[in-house]
Amino acid sequence: MKYGIFFLLFAMTSSFFFQGCQQTDEIPVPLSPADTIPHISVSTGLLSPTFDPSITEYHVTSLNILQTFEVSVEGVVDSTIFINGQQSTSLSSVRLHKGQDLVIQAKNHRGELLEYTIHYLPKDFPDTHVVYNTNTTNGYTFVNFPSTLEDLGYIAMLDEEGFPLYYKKEHPQARNLQYFELPNGTKRFTYNIRNDKVVVMNERFEVIDELRLLPHNGHEGYPPGSHDFMLLDEDHYLIQAYVTREDVDLTALGGQPSVDLVELVFQEIKDGQVIFEWNSADHPELLSATDDVYFARYATEPVVDYFHFNSFTIDPKDNHFIISARHMNQVYKIHRTTGEILWRLGGKTDEFQLDESQQISHIHHSTITPSGTMLIFDNGNTKSLQETRVIEFQLDEVNKTATTVWEYREPGRYTSFMGSAQRLSNGHTLIGWGGNRTSQINANKSDFTEVDQNGNIVLDVSFTNQPNRNFFTYRAIRYTFDLMQ
């Protein structure tokens, strides 16, 4: 049985890109009777709710408007199909402008109008509020919205005004959306799902791989953590996991005779082989250097996460690893081949003579800037004045000194977990503020901020928390690339 379908113009003022279509001024007579559309689908994601001809309002679980995507309307005659007022075929290539809904309309054989709307954003996607916007740096800002709900989480790519151009509804612990350009120019996008996997997507945001730690030194089967990942080339990457070391005797440190310790293991994997692995358990001196909060737990808790890795990068001047450990209040340089700790910055065993104003606490992100300095997002959990900041050091690795060259803070602003800091190409700094469960005042402040070299805010963006849904921005990182097709 054939069905006839017609589509009316949705918005005369909206600009709409459609490949292989022609404009028409009026809807022709249907070629065959139709009371409903048997099925509609969109290539970027699944319709929610599942398509039912009796339901007219939908959203899609993932959408990417930088490129064309496919819309399929099944069981109809091609010559009678219209999408957003454009004559179409049963399988159509479409591109939307930001905020533009996808509207499908038709008249059945009785002349009754059939209309189906796929809304640009789901109702539960956080509302964006641009508090301030002037002279921002070009690029796309990647954010993650881990949620307190079990069934709700988003990753998203935003334009300079904080508006989503790509989003994907994912596991509530999906984090760390990143962009990588490989040596051959191939574009890749990745994100972590906590205690599960790292997802790799191609330039069309289509999933092409899922990564986990490889069997090595007894670490088979450990799911990767959510804190960081680096894709260096095709089948060449850094991946990390939290590994529990059981039944450790800590009586020498005033602890219990049997404690389970949460260790960091990270691997460098190339061509399906582990070419380097680092394990915090191989460095027993770390146990006495943890923050006092966790040191005290050796005597009281059955399981202690004393290290708590947060980020890694590669120092471009010597190719050694730079990693940060939140519960150690430290940043480390790790030798690329031997695994030796070359130096420690911050914490109890600081080697750079940090003074009181420079000390860092419960840091969440450390990176090397283009000029070679170290930029750190310092949550400040255990300081007498709980205040979050971004601090930049010039490190003298020979004489072991650290000079503060830049710092940004907002008086009274405190985020107890998550967060990021990134130096942009024009010298501005992008700050992802992370989250705060203990202060609703801080929780309601902006989620990411761009400031210039003098600390002037040029962009301030916040996302509205919905009833019983507290969103956090795990990190906010900006990238510049071209995906338009």
Description:
It is a single chain. The protein is an all-beta fold. It folds into 2 domains: 103 residues, no CATH class; 352 residues, 6 Propeller (Neuraminidase), CATH 2.120.10.30. The protein has 2 helices and 37 strands. The chain has a 5-stranded antiparallel sheet with strand order 5-15-14-13-37, with no helix packed on it. Strands 12-36-35-34-33 form a 5-stranded antiparallel sheet, with no helix packed on it. Strands 20, 21, 22, 23 and 24 form a 5-stranded mixed sheet that branches. The protein is elongated. The protein starts with 16 loop residues before the first strand and ends in a 6-residue tail after the last strand. The N terminus is likely disordered.
Helix/strand layout:
Layout: E1 17-18, E2 39-42, E3 47-48, E4 57-60, E5 62-64, E6 69-74, E7 81-83, E8 86-88, E9 91-95, E10 102-107, E11 113-119, E12 128-133, E13 140-145, E14 154-158, E15 164-169, E16 174-181, E17 187-193, E18 197-201, E19 207-211, E20 229-233, E21 236-248, E22 259-270, E23 273-279, H1 292-297, E24 303-304, E25 309-314, E26 321-325, E27 330-334, E28 341-345, E29 365-368, E30 374-378, E31 389-396, E32 401-409, E33 420-423, E34 429-432, H2 440-443, E35 448-451, E36 457-463, E37 476-479
Parallel strand pairs: 4-11, 22-24
Antiparallel strand pairs: 1-9, 2-6, 3-4, 5-15, 6-9, 7-8, 10-11, 12-36, 13-14, 13-37, 14-15, 16-17, 17-18, 18-19, 20-21, 21-22, 22-23, 25-26, 26-27, 27-28, 29-30, 30-31, 31-32, 33-34, 34-35, 35-36
